[in-house]
Amino acid sequence: GAVVSQHPSRVICKSGTSVKIECRSLDFQATTMFWYRQFPKKSLMLMATSNEGSKATYEQGVEKDKFLINHASLTLSTLTVTSAHPEDSSFYICSATDRYGYTFGSGTRLTVV
Amino acid sequence: QQPVQSPQAVILREGEDAVINCSSSKALYSVHWYRQKHGEAPVFLMILLKGGEQKGHYKISASFNEKKQQSSLYLTASQLSYSGTYFCGTEQKGGSEKLVFGKGTKLTVNP
Question: Chain A: which residues have CB within 8 Å of chain B?
Fold first, then answer.
């Protein structure tokens, strides 16, 4: 089946710094990838749709200057959390679609201290 | 629009059955079901595309009603490994492939 690799799995950063999260489709090409955010015991909230070769489409209320998305190739999308603050601490998950459906990455737990 | 999932939580004894519902106020293009264990990413269970469709195997199956506004996930003869939070993700008709997830149903299977 399709595999989506996400790195890092855990990251702790200082307030004010930036963190980059990578999402790779390993055995298929993904023109579209999705970034979600999940708070403890809550549902997955779609942040943005990442489109290869073009600008990402952000959901209402998501700051595009804070959550920078780059989808430079058919197998890689990155999410950069800029000037991170403690309230950005969360579980970030990417997903990609192939002909079988959606496949999620393993998630990145970000803790901002 | 976020789909409505019910119930919010279910506690079963091993071997019992459960039904989780997911409904939308508008007709959907597709419904996806996922199970998530604590601290892990969601794992895909199945996708339903056609009104009236039923799929899955005899222990975990799902249905999509004719109007494509409601889906149910059926867990039969539950096992301990079924414990987790179940999410339905819905794709609107004419949408951009993006999934909107329900709030989840926490299933606990006890020995």
Answer: 6, 32, 34, 36, 42-46, 49, 57, 93, 95, 97, 101-107, 109
What confidence tens digit (pLDDT) does each residue in B78-111 have? 999 999 999 999 988 766 678 899 999 999 999 9
Asked if B99 has any chain A CB less than 8 Å from its own CB, the reply is: yes
SS3 at position B111: coil
Let me know: does B22 contact B102? Beta carbons within 8 Å.
yes
Which chain B residues are Cβ-neighbours of A36 within 8 angstroms? 101
- The predicted pLDDT at position A20 comes to 97
- Residue B81 phi/psi, 5-degree rounding, is -70, -10
CA distance B51 to B28: 9
Are B102 and B8 within 8 A, CB to CB? Answer: no
CA–CA separation, B48 and B40 (whole Å): 24
Q: How confident is the model at residue A101 (pLDDT cuts 50, 70, 90)?
A: confident
Residues in CB range of B13: below 8 A, 6 or more apart: B109, B110, B111
Q: Which tokens sit at B7? A: 């119930």
Closest to A46 (Cβ–Cβ): which among B34, B39, B98?
Answer: B98
B47 touches chain A (CB under 8 A): yes
**A105 close to A6: Cβ distance less than 8 angstroms:** yes
Q: Is the pLDDT assigned to residue A100 strictly greater than 70?
A: no
Kindly tell me the burial class for residue A40, based on how many C-beta atoms sit within 10 Å of its own C-beta (0-12, 13-18, 19 or more): exposed
